[in-house]
Amino acid sequence: MRKGALDIIYNFFKEYDREVATIKIVNKSSNPYQISINGDVIGNLGGGRTYEKEVEPGYYHIKAVQVSGYMFSPTVNNRDVNVANGDSKTVYVGFED
Questions:
Q1: 35 near 62, Cβ under 8 Å?
Q2: At 32, phi and psi to the nearest 5?
Q3: Cα(71)–Cα(66) distance, integer angstroms
Q4: Could you tell me the pTM of the whole model?
Q5: Using an 8 Å Cβ cutoff, are 70 and 91 in contact?
Q6: Which helix H or strand E contains 17, and what residues bound it?
Q7: Count of beta carbons in the 10 Å neighbourhood of residue 35
Q8: Residue 17 — left, alpha, or beta (φ > 0 → left; ψ -120 to 50 → alpha)?
C-alpha cells in the first residue's frame, strides 16, 4: 500500500515538473475556421472564438482554413510559432469583419 501511495504522489509532482507552453488561437473573423496544428486537425473555431492548448516547447505550424462565408475560395491562414518553456503565444487567424 505504501509503495502505491508513493507512486501516486511521485506521478502527481512529475506532471507539474514537465516543461509546458501555451498557444492561444484567436479567430478575428465572424466566420468559422478549421484549425490544424502540425497537420493534426483540432476542429472548427467559430467566429470571434478563442482556442487555447498546452504544448511542449518547440516549433508549431498552425493552419486555419475558412469553413464558410466566402465567395470563391476559402481564406487559408498559415502561421508559425516557436514557444519556450513557460511561454504563452497568441496566434490570430481570419480577418476582422
A1: yes
A2: -75, 150
A3: 11
A4: 0.79
A5: no
A6: helix 2-17
A7: 22
A8: alpha
Q: What's the rounded Cα separation, in Å, for the pair 31 and 19?
A: 34
- Cβ-based neighbours of 42, under 8 Å, separated by 6 or more: 35, 36, 51, 53
Q: Could you give the percent of the chain with pLDDT greater than 90?
A: 73
Q: How far apart are CA 52 and CA 89, in angstroms?
A: 10
What distance in Å separates the CA atoms of residue 44 and residue 66, rounded to the nearest whole number? 9
CA nearest neighbour of 34 among 49, 24, 48, 44: 44
| 86: nearest Cα among 20, 13, 17 | 20
CB 25 within 8 A of CB 35: yes
C-alpha cell at 49: 472564438
Residue-wise pLDDT for 66-82, tens only, equals: 999 999 999 999 999 99
Contact (CB, 8 A) for 91 and 79: yes
Locate 65 and state its grid cell: 482554413
